[in-house]
Each structure stands twice: as C-alpha cells, then as structure tokens.
C-alpha cells in the first residue's frame, strides 16, 4: 500500500498547495473573460458536449458520424454513447469493459494482453481519439486502454466513410478526451478489489491565470494487483495533461499529452487448447494458464496533440489538429501448441520468443464547418483535408528449445527455464500513408426533411515488408455518404443511409498478383425517438453490410502462402435505448440480431455471436437520495468453431450479471461497491482463435471517492 499512500499524499498536496499553478478560485475572473463564447467545431472533442457531472447515460449531440453538429436523432446512422457516469457507476476502467457493455459489440479476448473487437460481423479496426485516428496496424489492440482520461466513448456502427474511409464496415470507436474546467475542481478515488487489486485515480482541473483565459487539467491513474489466472499480475500507469488557452475571443489553442504503460507479468501468448486428440472438449480450471513464470508483456502508449480552433463569425469555424502517437511493446512470451491426450494430458509443446516493436504515427487534420444559405434556407457544410503516416518496426527473437514436450498443464506451475532468444530472428518494417479530402453537407430541404450528402477521397499507400512478405500496396477510392432524415414529429424521425469504406491489402493470389482492396458498404433504415424532454434516446434499425474481396488463406506454393478474395454479407436489426426513464432512473440497453453469410450462402465467422443483449441501469432511491443502486446484464447467443475432421467446439449461450451500489456520505465523500459475474458463470473469453481461456469468476471491489 506504500504506492497508494504516496500517490494519495501527492494528489492531496496538489489540491491544497498554495504554490499550485491553478489560479486561486477566491480571485474570480472577469465575467467577459471567464464566460467564453461557445465554439462548435465538427468532428472534434474539444467542443463536444461534456457528460461529466451530468449523471446522464446519453448525450444529445455528437459529430462522430458525419463531422456535422447534429443530435443523435438527426444522425442517419446507429450511434451509441457511453458516458462518464456509466463508466464510473460500473467501474468500466478499460476499453474492454466499455465495449463489452455496448450495443452490437463483442469483445474477443484471445489472450490476456491482446484483444479483437467485432460489430455487425466484422472486425473493428478504427479507434479514434477526438475524431482523429488510423486503422490498427495489426488488426487488434495490445495492452489495456484505460478510460480514466475520457469524458465519453462514441460507437458509430456500420461503415463510416466520412470519418474512417479505410477499414472494415463494422464500427468506429471515438474516444472523447476530458478537457479543462475553468472553475477549480478536484477528485480522487481509491479502489480495493479481488485478487489484491488496488487502484488510485486523481483528477485536478482549473484556471491557470487570474483572467480565467487559460485552464489546465491533470489526470493520473495507477493500478496494480494479481489475477484469477495463475501467475498473471497486470499493472498499469496512466498520466494525462492538457492545457487550453483562449488567445482571443474567437481563438482557442489546446495542447495535451497522455501516457500509459501496461506491464502484464505472467501474461499468456496464445491460450488453452480447446479439445483433446479424441475430439472431446477440454475443461480446465478457470485459473489455468499456459504462461511460463518468466513471461512478461510490456506496452507503452504516448499520444501528443495540438489543436487550434478559430471562429470566423457566428456561422463558420476552422479547426486544425496535429497529433503524434508512439506505441511500443517489449515482451518475453511462451506459446503452447499441440493437442493434448485426454488421459495423460501430454501432447503439448513449447514455443518461447522475445518481441520488440515500435509503431509511430503522425496525423494532421484541417477542417472548416459552418452554415450557408441556398434557396432561402440555411444549410450546414463541413470540408477539409487530413494526412497521416504510420511506421511500424518490429523484430522477433525466437528462443532455443522450440518444440520441447511439456507436461500436463492441468496443474502446471509455469516452471520452464528461460531460454536464450537467439535461435533465429525475423521481423517487419513498413510504412503506411493516407491522404484524404472530404466534404459533407446537410441540406435543409424542408422543415421536416434533411439530406446529408458527402464524399471522402482517400489515397492509401504502403511500402516495406512483414516477415519476408512485401507490404507494398497503393490504392485510391472515393467513398460516398448519403443520408435522409424525415421528422415525423419534433421528437420522432425516420432515416435511411448509405456509406462505404475500403482497405488496401498486400496479400497475393496464386499468380503472385496483389489482391485488390477490400471494399465494404452499409445500408441502414431506422427510426429514432427523443422522450422525456429529450433525456431519453430510442432507436431501431435494420442494416445490410457487404464486405468484398477480403483476403483468405488459400494454399501454399513451396513455403509461400497465397490468398483468395472472399465476400461476406451481414444483415440484421438493432434496438438501442439510453438516457433517463424517470427522475433518478438511468438506462442503457440494446439488442442485436444478425446473420452472416459467405459468397456460397453458408454461415461464416461462426465464432461471432448472432444475438447480443446489453442492459445497464441505475436508480437513485427516492426515500434515500444519497443512495444509488444498479445492475447490468450481458447475454449472447451460442457460438461454435469448426476445427475440421468433424471436430466442432461450441460455446452455449450465456449471461453474466453485475451489481453496483453507491452512497454519498456528504457532498465531498462517497463509497461505492461493485460485484461482477454474480452467478460465477464459467465461460470462454472467445472462439476467435483455436485456443481460448476462461473469463473472470465472481469478483468485486470497493471504492472510496473524494471530490471538490
């Protein structure tokens, strides 16, 4: 607990020290300086409405789908919003927690420190930060994205050609960062949880000068502890700082940097075998791990950004963003492969390796947003350019002793001598570039009828190699966006939309020719409703998603793999609700059902659940307003994986329930408790790969919060 006490004292000192850089709240800023004019810039988080201190489970407006300033009801696409209140209520401290409780999204935890995300049957490969981002370098996320620094998370389902012109027609996840407050505020929280988990959060914000024209914010989080998995002890440190300066009545400059380091001691590379040599399924203890006792996976993520926004007049704004990201990973890992014998447990073999990689990204975005008059009506317009470069360098050092027979892992202690990692090396070095020009407009055709039309012209090119295979690719495409919204009443709208996306690929066919880019498109019809003074958002949608020419392994010529392009189609419907049902009663819920077929009309990606239900709700007790109670329920339909030779691995449908309670002792102090997987359900984290491991059993935590 020494680290916790040290950080708590540091946070307290930062809050109370007279030498603190934040301006003394006792010296009020002049009204004309402190109350700055509202600047609304599309596609940026700095001007997105904050969900902090609202206690709400929804927000009215979001630019995450179109770059235009519209309400959720006016947006002709499915959008879910995870607010700060929901994250705090259910202790959703990482991206996995957030997305696993979001309508239409499944989280495929293939390993302890690496995760895939799916929506509408396809991999989510676009994460954005304040509306700016690139597709994943490797198709998945390594490490643990902490949520302490975010105000909310927007999830736009389907293809999102205006905001993410390259990628898959699945979803775009937009993390909206916290921004400085001009009135002094501070908070800290200490959490104690199962398996000796300890977490400290601190957040301080306020004006930095007496005039109230400059404000700053610092967010710190530290988490350590053990795990339900044998030998696994995850640890992470998060630091975020941001400064906002009003250079005039119409110009705002923002500078920020975030740092996160995750250290997974004893983490798994790969996971448990799913079946025995006789084809029957394995059934290990929930805590079983294949990791050696020396295994370690350290990831570090640093993100710096500069934003400059200027309001030309009441109708037009210009926004420029420059970001630089650097992610590194250093690991010593132990992979286990093979198929065990049911009686002896033998038949597994070792594969130790050491990896180092660096991924650096530079992104620039310039946009203008405003209004114009045509045919006697006022319309909205947004246009701009963005440029990005991503460079990946990694090297693999393979360990001596690959193929060594292992004992039965049922009660294995991870006792495997750490080898020398000099058997041989391999790696990759490649660079991706994207250049984009975009334009979008909302035409006010009639009081009840709006047309949203736009296009995104992107050129994508790559050079380099990856493990002996060329990564050379070059493609350009214009992706259209079209949406129609008709207001049946001031609170009910129907909509239709069409949007596209594409993704270059470097895989070659049997003739050695590089496959054409993957192309994807999405069509959607829906209805959206605002109820209870616009505090509750409801939506229902039917969708059809098409992905064409995605590379699939087709065979070998000598030792080289060749691929073929395959098509897949997803169609289904979604229901979504978020907001306040009654005073003190918040709700977030959604149901998704889909089919996923290949070009031969057969089911594909059978590991993807065809049915998903999400529900989270909290209620502030009217007879005891200091108390809040709540619960969440996640259910998914059955999934399976065909391993060939008549071996099919199945996971039946299952549900998990979580509970929460919070009591405000006074206006400064509160205590909360969370209990997860109440029924202690045993289930696999994913069937995405031919290996998997078990999800966490029943666990809980208690948090003491202080705020000012």
Number of strands: 37
Structural class from helices and strands?
mainly beta
Mean pLDDT: 90
How many helical elements? 4
Radius of gyration over alpha carbons? 25 Å
| Regions with little confidence, pLDDT below 50 for 5+ residues | 1-46
What is the quaternary state of this protein?
A: single chain
Q: Describe the largest sheet.
A: 22 strands, antiparallel, barrel
Beta-strand percentage? Answer: over 45%
Give the topology, please:
Elements: H1 2-16, H2 31-34, E1 61-62, E2 70-71, E3 79-83, H3 84-89, H4 95-100, E4 105-111, E5 114-119, E6 122-123, E7 126-129, E8 141-142, E9 150-157, E10 171-177, E11 185-193, E12 197-207, E13 214-224, E14 233-246, E15 251-265, E16 272-273, E17 296-311, E18 317-338, E19 348-374, E20 377-398, E21 424-446, E22 449-466, E23 469-470, E24 473-489, E25 492-503, E26 518-531, E27 536-557, E28 560-582, E29 585-598, E30 611-620, E31 627-636, E32 639-644, E33 647-651, E34 654-664, E35 669-676, E36 691-692, E37 699-707
Parallel strand pairs: 7-10
Antiparallel strand pairs: 1-2, 3-9, 4-5, 5-6, 5-8, 9-10, 11-12, 11-37, 12-13, 13-14, 14-15, 15-17, 16-36, 17-18, 18-19, 19-20, 20-21, 21-22, 22-23, 22-24, 24-25, 25-26, 26-27, 27-28, 28-29, 29-30, 30-31, 31-34, 32-33, 34-35, 35-37
């Amino acid at each position: 607990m020494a680290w916790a006490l040290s950080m708590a004292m540091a946070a307290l000192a930062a809050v109370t020290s007279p030498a603190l850089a934040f301006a003394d709240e006792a010296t009020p800023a002049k009204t004309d300086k402190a109350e700055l004019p509202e600047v609304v810039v599309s596609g940026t988080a700095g001007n997105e409405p904050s969900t902090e201190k609202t206690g709400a489970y929804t927000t009215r407006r979001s630019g995450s789908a179109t770059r235009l300033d519209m309400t959720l009801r006016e947006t002709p696409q499915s959008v879910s919003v995870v607010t700060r209140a929901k994250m705090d209520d259910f202790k959703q401290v990482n991206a996995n927690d957030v997305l696993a409780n979001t309508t239409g999204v499944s989280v495929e935890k293939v390993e302890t420190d690496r995760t895939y995300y799916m929506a509408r049957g396809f991999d989510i490969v676009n994460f954005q930060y304040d509306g700016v981002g690139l597709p994943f370098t490797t198709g998945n996320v390594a490490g643990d994205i902490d949520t302490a620094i975010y105000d909310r998370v927007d999830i736009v389902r389907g293809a999102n050609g205006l905001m993410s012109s390259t990628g898959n027609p699945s979803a775009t996840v937009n993390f909206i960062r916290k921004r400085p407050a001009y009135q002094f505020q501070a908070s800290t929280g200490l959490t104690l949880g199962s398996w000796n988990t300890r977490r400290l959060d601190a957040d301080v914000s306020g004006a930095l000068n007496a005039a109230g024209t400059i404000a700053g914010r610092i967010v710190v989080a530290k988490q350590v502890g053990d795990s339900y998995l044998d030998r696994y002890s995850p640890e992470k440190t998060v630091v975020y700082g941001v400064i906002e300066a009003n250079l005039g009545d119409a110009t705002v400059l923002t500078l920020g940097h975030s740092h996160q380091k995750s250290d997974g001691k004893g983490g798994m590379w790969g996971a448990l075998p799913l079946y025995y040599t006789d084809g029957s399924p394995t059934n290990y203890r929930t805590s079983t791990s294949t990791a050696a006792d020396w295994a370690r996976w350290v990831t570090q993520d640093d993100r710096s950004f500069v934003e400059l926004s200027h309001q030309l007049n009441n109708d037009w704004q210009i926004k420029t963003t420059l970001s630089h990201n650097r992610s590194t990973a250093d690991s010593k890992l132990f992979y286990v492969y093979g198929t065990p014998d049911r009686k002896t447990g033998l038949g597994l073999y070792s594969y130790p390796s050491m990896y180092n990689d660096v991924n650096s990204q530079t992104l620039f975005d310039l946009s203008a947003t405003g209004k114009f008059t045509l045919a006697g009506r006022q319309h909205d317009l947004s246009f701009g350019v963005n440029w990005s470069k991503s460079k990946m360098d990694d090297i693999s050092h393979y360990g001596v002793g690959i193929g060594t027979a292992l004992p039965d892992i049922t009660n294995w202690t991870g006792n495997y001598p750490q080898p020398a990692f000099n058997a041989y090396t391999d790696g990759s070095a490649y660079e991706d570039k994207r250049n984009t020009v975009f334009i979008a407009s909302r035409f006010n055709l009639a009081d009840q009828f709006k047309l949203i039309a736009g296009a995104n012209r992107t050129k994508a090119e790559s050079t380099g190699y990856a493990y002996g295979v060329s990564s050379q690719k070059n493609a350009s495409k214009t992706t259209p966006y079209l949406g129609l919204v008709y207001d049946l009443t001031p609170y009910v709208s129907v909509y239709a939309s069409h949007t596209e996306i594409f993704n270059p690929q470097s895989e070659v066919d049997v003739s050695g020719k590089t496959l054409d880019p993957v192309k994807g498109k999405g069509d959607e019809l829906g209805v959206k409703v605002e109820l209870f003074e616009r505090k509750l958002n409801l939506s229902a949608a039917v969708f059809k998603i098409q992905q064409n020419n995605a590379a699939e392994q087709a065979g070998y010529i000598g030792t080289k793999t060749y691929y073929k392009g395959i098509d897949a189609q997803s169609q289904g419907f979604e229901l979504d609700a978020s907001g306040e049902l009654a005073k003190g009663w918040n709700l977030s819920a959604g149901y998704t059902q889909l089919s996923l077929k290949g070009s031969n009309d057969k089911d594909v990606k059978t590991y993807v659940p065809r049915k998903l239900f999400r529900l989270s709700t909290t209620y502030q007790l009217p007879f005891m307003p200091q108390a809040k109670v709540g619960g969440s329920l996640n259910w998914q339909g059955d999934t399976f994986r065909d391993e060939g030779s008549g071996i099919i691995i199945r996971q039946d449908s299952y549900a998990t329930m979580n509970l929460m309670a919070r009591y405000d002792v006074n206006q400064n102090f509160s205590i909360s408790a969370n209990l997860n997987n109440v029924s202690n359900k045993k289930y696999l984290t994913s069937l995405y790969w031919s290996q998997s491991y078990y999800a966490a059993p029943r666990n809980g935590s208690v948090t003491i919060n202080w705020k000012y």
